Amino acid sequence: MSNPPLSLRLLGQTGLGVTPICFGTSPLASMEKLYGYAVDEELAVATVLAAFESSINFIDTSNGYGEDGTAERRIGEAIRRAGGLPAQVVLATKVDPDPHTGDFSGDRVRASLEESMERLGTDRIPLLHLHDPERISFEEGVAPAGPVEALVDLRDRGLVEHLGVAGGPVGLLQRYLDTGEFEVVLSHNRYTLLDRSADALFRSAADRGFGVLNAAPYGGGMLSKGPGVHQRYAYGTRDDQIPQAALAMEAVCLRYGVPLAAAALQFSLRSEVITSTVVGISSPRRFAQTLHLATVEIPDDLWSELELHVPPRELWLD
């Protein structure tokens, strides 16, 4: 890797200094149907408290992680137990549609932020993302009284310091970046050993001075637990060539004595255009495990062999 795993990097032009590994908190919401396991309240709070003690200074969450904002509520409880958010921690959250009606209007964006701040116990958010805007049309997103207009207003009022857009489809994310209102872009499952959909978006964004966040480097579990254990990629069933490619990559890693998860994580960390990689962490011990994976020695020849097994472009997410 070209950089020590925890040296601070500037997040685009925001002025925020963040570690190359970001603590992703969606597993703390105990979304068993999505991840296949539950996380109880005390374990979740202990995990956040462990994050505060770790060398990772960047935490990513969302209004919509879990029923009634479970992840945010648990983070808020940890903040209270810690006597406040540690000064070094950069906390990012996301606005989401109304979970019952699907409303994603400007008014809903304001309500979403208000809910988040109440759960987290904070009166200002350093980084706020428009989350999964693919749930509405781009035209609705940028319409008068729509979510983008509301986000800009929240920033102008000082409730939010910086705006990002976080989602999946790279073409749509590019359209939001082109509005000129966002400083950070986050995409998930689209820059991994198995999928390079976001490569052009990330490179273009970095060239223009945006902060670039890559989430889900393990593809939702296939590249951490192994394709023999976890058959789904990006939380769904994909073409058989995807797990087959993962099995081939796992075999290559085995020959070199390198964990597949280490290669998957470092594939993202070694990119010169990605500011921080968002890794879901669900227990205190996972911090040490993640930091270990980030420092495993990986020879250049391994990277060359892994490239031989990348699935064809038509199988990437978008």
Task: Kindly describe this structure.
- The chain has 318 residues and is of the alpha/beta class.
- The chain has one domain: TIM Barrel, CATH 3.20.20.100.
- Helix content is 39%, strand content 15%.
- It has 13 helices and ten strands.
- The strands form two sheets. Strands 3-4-5-6-7-8-9-10 form an eight-stranded parallel β-barrel, surrounded by five helices. Strands 1-2 form a two-stranded antiparallel ribbon.
- Strand 8 (184-188), helix 8 (199-207) and strand 9 form a beta-alpha-beta unit.
- Helix 2 (41-53) crosses helix 3, helix 4 (106-120) crosses helix 6 (147-156) and helix 11 (260-269) packs across helix 12.
- The longest helix is centred in the C-terminal third of the chain and has 16 residues, at 241-256.
- It is globular.
- The two termini are 28 Å apart.
- The model is unreliable at 1-5 (pLDDT under 50).
Defining key terms:
13 helices; 318 residues; alpha/beta; eight-stranded parallel barrel; 15% strand; TIM Barrel; two-stranded antiparallel sheet; disordered N terminus
- How big a fraction of the residues is strand? 5-15%
N- to C-terminal separation? 28 Å
Summing up helix and strand content along with how strands pair, one would put the structural category as alpha/beta
Average pLDDT rating:
96
* CA-based gyration radius: 19 Å
The number of helical segments is 13
Q: Just name the CATH architecture.
A: Alpha-Beta Barrel
Biggest sheet, spatial arrangement of strands: 3-4-5-6-7-8-9-10
